[in-house]
Sequence to fold (246 residues):
Amino acid sequence: MATPVNPLPNPADYQRKDRFQQKVGDAVDRLQAEFPRRTNQLIAVAAVVLAVALGAFYAVEGVRSKADKDAAALGEALAAREAGNFADEKAELEKFLATNPSTALVRAKAELLLANIHYLERDFAAAETAFRASAKDAGSVDMIAAAARHGLASTLMQKGDWAAAAAEWESFVSSYGKRSGTAREQAAGKESFDDVALVPDALLKLAFVRLETGDKEKAKAACERILTSYGDSRAASQARTLLNAI
Fold:
């Protein structure tokens, strides 16, 4: 496992020049420790859910032959995961991907699981490569593609590549964020619903990244959208804290 490092730059090290910077910095200080923990947790949870979802996909679509063999081979890695043996899971995933499985969805799932392990090991270069591959191989299957793209943007944050992370989060929200109205409009059936559940978290991270790139107006806009359209999400309280500090 890679040697742990501070996942995000420490705002206390910055030269804050005015009260605005100090106020925002204090809010970021409170939130920064939460981001890495929640990011790790979200990706891991998404991977477990996808294991079930992929099994359901094969049952519904009746995929046979090569796909069945690929899924069975991937089962060795999933069994290691269930046992909490991440070293064996990693080895099984790498061995599985080396066979060049022909089924794109199964390959995307394996790449997502492997990317998650790299991320937890803080090997962010390897995580970025695997998340990108998973997102590509997932194609139009939103549940897998969204988890991979969320992981990719989170990885870019951990690397401190703020401009690239901002672009990924903007793209993620554009692809999956369908809600724009208020909770009342949603209850009245006048609003679309997102196909994936990671949009408010993506908006919160987008706000954080926009502050890092110096664009406080876009940071405010992301927070306001969370409070307007995702007020019932876990991200809402953090968005309110950050917005009050801007």
Remarks:
- The first helix runs from residue 19 to 32.
- The two ends are 37 Å apart (CA to CA).
